[in-house]
Design goal:
heterodimer, A: mainly alpha, 0% strand, elongated, B: mainly alpha, extended
Chain lengths: 139, 163
């Protein structure tokens, strides 16, 4: 598919828009529909589109597999550590009220952090899955 | 109708495509039921990414399913299970009635107090991320484990065969 000029040009336009939309879904999740899972999948789909159009190797150069592995574990760890931080500050596990100056501010901090963790895990795992399948299927 | 086609067709590529359309229809149905977050997830995951994953998996196997003989035991089991489930739904209260147990349990508290306790307009987000934080942690772990499992199963095999 690397010779398809129309696909290449269109996807070059589309990929930044998809990424921007993913960030919008991520940070607008507390106001409208959406959230970390959806944002992660949309962000991953930008990279998957890149992989489908430009091939596996160029995309792997952009996002190395090692990074993806670190990020996909790091997102879960970030989530877990937000819970531990709540413990250390004197609350229950995953109690966000103690994270900020007021309970609501603490909730905001906690939710933004765990949504970041979920989005990192989902996006990097999805890209990793696609890479692994693509690699395996052309064997 | 799309589900029937998915079950009956032998052309796996067409099945993947129709299944994607089925997910999109499901997303539209969730949207009609006012579940925007669920519809969003279904459209992104069901119609988008999982279709790509199935297409990639399809590259490693033949495109057409081998025709199997008529197997009656599975269809009997499926029909019996379905009939039992449908029979079970007869006792369920009317969908959307305000007095249903599902609307009386924790939902009123979430709807009334989450604005004050969490300070976020989208109740779905505050339930998902704060009240049900443990469940969401579990979901994140599930996603991570799925990636880890696939990588351990097929990501490492290749390297051993062609070093």
């Amino acid at each position: 598919m690397r010779d398809a000029l129309i696909l290449r040009v269109i996807s070059k336009f589309l990929i930044p828009v998809i990424m921007l939309f993913a960030l919008y879904v991520q940070f607008h999740g507390e106001l409208g529909p959406g959230g970390a899972f959806q944002a992660g999948v949309i962000m991953a789909s930008a990279f998957i589109l890149h992989m489908l159009v430009f091939g596996l190797e160029p995309t792997r150069r952009i996002v190395p597999v090692l990074w993806l592995r670190i990020l996909s574990a790091g997102g879960v760890l970030l989530y877990g550590f937000v819970g531990v931080a709540g413990l250390l500050l004197g609350g229950n596990y995953l109690e966000y009220n103690v994270l900020g100056t007021s309970p609501t501010a603490g909730q905001h901090v906690g939710i933004i952090l765990i949504e970041l963790g979920v989005a990192l895990t989902v996006a990097s795992t999805m890209i990793l899955l696609t890479f692994t399948f693509a690699d395996w299927s052309r064997r | 109708m799309t589900a029937l086609y998915v079950a009956l067709s032998r052309d796996l590529l067409a099945v993947v495509m129709v299944f994607s359309a089925y997910s999109l229809l499901c997303a539209g149905m969730f949207m009609v039921l006012d579940a925007a977050d669920v519809a969003f997830t279904e459209a992104a995951v069901g119609a988008g990414v999982s279709t790509i994953l199935m297409l990639l998996a399809l590259r490693c196997c033949p495109r057409h399913e081998r025709p199997a003989g008529r197997q009656w035991l599975p269809i009997v089991v499926v029909v019996l299970t379905g009939a039992t489930l449908v029979y079970g739904t007869l006792d369920l209260p009317q969908v959307g009635e305000p007095g249903n147990p599902v609307h009386q349990h924790v939902a009123p508290r979430y709807l009334e107090d989450s604005g004050r306790e969490i300070g976020i307009p989208n109740v779905v987000t505050s339930v998902l991320a704060s009240y049900r934080g443990f469940d969401t942690l579990g979901e994140a772990v599930v996603v991570f484990t799925a990636g880890l499992g696939v990588w351990l199963l097929i990501g490492t095999v290749r390297r051993r065969r062609e070093p």
